[in-house]
Here is the input.
Amino acid sequence: MKVYRLVAKQGLAISKEKAWDFLSNPNNLKEITPEHMGFKILSGADKGMYPGQIIQYKVYPFPGIATKWVTEISHVKEGEYFVDEQRFGPYALWHHKHFIKEVTGGVEMEDIIDYKIPLGFIGRLAHPLLVKQQLKKIFEFREAKLNELFGKLNGYKNSINFE
Here is the structure.
């Protein structure tokens, strides 16, 4: 069983409170997701974030392929981090940790995603060709959009790495 990891770090020139308010609101996911993915929240985003919250989405991970994605917010430490875990969706495993840390001049956001592709050998073949490339594009879009909305932290080197 191969479990992959994506680590993305980004510096933004905003307060920790403003970053938390935006990033912990599931309704803002649509704004930082590429339009071609047709991201739509179906239910569960009508209250502030809390452990046990179930959020249902519809998304097109690849053109013409729609999937329902159900995540649970499993952990929340107000203002510092939250964790979402897929309960149903395109991955065999999806565990996404979101950290927000105050740094000089703004915040550092860190996303750590541990994920597994379904379909065994076929999934492992598809990872470098399709899945890894799609995730990279999503996080590049997210980085650009957040920079546009809040401003890049001066001197901070953003990164997207796969382990």
